[in-house]
């Protein structure tokens, strides 16, 4: 056994951990879990734990249902909301890789899809770092008389509400995240009533994706414990701002930020400019993955600073890609911000297609078009056309149609995941068109 595995076994014994939850995700980004007794951990590390993969969305067909999950010991953490007050007799978790019966990575495992794309970046000499700003709504436990969720407050952006529910909620959620080893940079009230934002610290993309899955679980657990309901639905209420997950991206070559160049405009290197060019050229193709729900398009086309058009800019929050300059004297902080992502995405698949699109731009040496510094929403259609600014897909149906012809998305996701998106997302769109709002509430609010 390696040292990390030995550390896990020793910690489980010393802290009297009674159950270890093995976490993994389906293709839609829903968290799955199987609990094992500590006595089974050594076998789980060496052989994996078997399960029926055909019952998990997108992982396997009935004729190839036998699959394994093998825990990644580097992701071990004791869950702070389980166990006694002294931290003993508790429950821990580890993220898992999904394997085929012969021990090979399952092609449809979202975590493997991201690992595979990160390996391609490593071959080109790059590591990929991400920093998400995660927005979500906090609702009262019960719906109103019309069956509509009720926000826990009527506060707005950066509001400080004396004795506010959101203050206590964010403090408890952040305390739990830090107990799990997840660093938080900022937290505040967002624009919408009951809407909050918590920003996670920069980390490598795989760790960030794991952290996002943990984050969503922690937020829901804290909300439940406090008698509330948290929703990561991209736009849960008509007429109110949607929830995004603006994500900062950067490539590093060794210890050096590959996006930074002293003296360049916005301190953005040729690599950084080509990376943005790749994001823009493939933005429409990857939108079905980065914004995978019918409700996602109510946010993208609902205003409130949500990006609707394919363009980039500096400090322009109406652009799809933004080049922020918070710390112009610090080259390591040079990065780009992709603003279309929403908090209900599958982070493994979303980061994989973003990285693949940006790397394609770097590999091909694509030139970055002129930036948009005006409010793109305020431009007329003819003005946008004259600037070469295309709209993002206006619906999930359109996004799927655009994605269908994308070699980049097909190669990145792999055949199984790509086909799953085409098949199942079309069916979801058809269901939505038949029922619209009632379907949307039943399907998304409890799950997201």
From TrEMBL:
Its EC number is 6.3.1.2. Keywords: ATP-binding, Ligase, Metal-binding, Nucleotide-binding. This is Type I glutamate--ammonia ligase. The keyword NAD does not apply. SUPFAM superfamilies: Glutamine synthetase, N-terminal domain, Glutamine synthetase/guanido kinase. GO terms for molecular function: glutamine synthetase activity. Belongs to the glutamine synthetase family. Pfam families: Gln-synt_C, Gln-synt_N. Residues 110-448 form the GS catalytic domain. PANTHER family: GAMMA-GLUTAMYLPOLYAMINE SYNTHETASE GLNA2, GAMMA-GLUTAMYLPUTRESCINE SYNTHETASE. Residues 15-103 form the GS beta-grasp domain.
């Amino acid at each position: 056994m390696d040292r990390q595995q030995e550390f896990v076994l020793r910690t489980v014994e010393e802290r009297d951990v009674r159950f270890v939850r093995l976490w993994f995700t389906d293709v839609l980004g829903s968290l799955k879990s199987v609990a094992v007794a500590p006595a089974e951990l050594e076998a789980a590390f060496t052989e994996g734990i078997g399960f029926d993969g055909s019952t998990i969305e997108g992982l396997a067909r009935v004729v190839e249902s036998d699959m394994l999950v093998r825990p990644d010991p580097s992701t071990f953490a004791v869950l702070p909301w389980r166990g006694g007050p002294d931290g003993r007799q508790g429950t821990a978790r580890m993220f898992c890789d999904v394997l085929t019966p012969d021990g090979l990575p399952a092609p449809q495992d979202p975590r493997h899809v991201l690992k595979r794309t990160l390996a391609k970046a490593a071959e080109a000499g790059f590591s990929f770092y991400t920093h998400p700003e995660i927005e979500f709504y906090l609702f009262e436990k019960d719906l109103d008389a019309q069956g509509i969720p009720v926000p826990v407050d009527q506060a707005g952006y950066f509001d400080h509400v004396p004795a506010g529910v959101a203050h206590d909620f964010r403090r408890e959620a952040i305390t739990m995240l830090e107990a799990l080893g997840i660093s938080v940079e900022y937290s505040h009230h967002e624009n919408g009533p009951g809407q909050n934002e918590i920003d996670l610290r920069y980390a490598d993309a795989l760790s960030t994706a794991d952290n996002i899955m943990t984050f969503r679980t922690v937020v829901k657990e804290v909300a439940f414990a406090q008698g509330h309901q948290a929703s990561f639905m991209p736009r849960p209420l008509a007429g109110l701002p949607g929830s995004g997950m603006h994500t900062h991206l950067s490539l590093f070559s060794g210890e050096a930020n590959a996006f930074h160049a002293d003296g360049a405009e916005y301190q953005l290197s040729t690599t950084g400019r080509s990376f943005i060019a790749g994001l823009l050229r493939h933005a429409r193709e990857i939108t079905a993955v980065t914004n995978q729900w019918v409700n996602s398009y109510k946010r993208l086309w609902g205003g409130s600073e949500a990006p609707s058009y394919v363009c980039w800019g500096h400090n322009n929050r109406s652009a799809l890609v933004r080049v922020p300059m918070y710390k112009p004297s610090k080259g390591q902080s040079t990065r780009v911000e992709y603003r279309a992502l929403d908090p209900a995405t599958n982070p493994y698949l979303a980061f994989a297609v973003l990285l693949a699109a940006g790397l394609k731009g770097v590999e091909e040496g694509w030139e970055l078009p002129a930036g948009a510094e005006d409010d793109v929403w305020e431009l007329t259609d003819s003005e946008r056309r004259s600037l070469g600014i295309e709209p993002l897909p206006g619906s999930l149906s359109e996004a799927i149609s655009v994605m269908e012809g994308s070699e980049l998305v097909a190669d990145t996701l792999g055949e199984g995941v790509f086909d799953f998106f085409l098949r199942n997302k079309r069916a979801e769109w058809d269901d939505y068109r038949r029922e619209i709002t009632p379907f949307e509430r039943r399907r998304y609010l409890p799950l997201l």
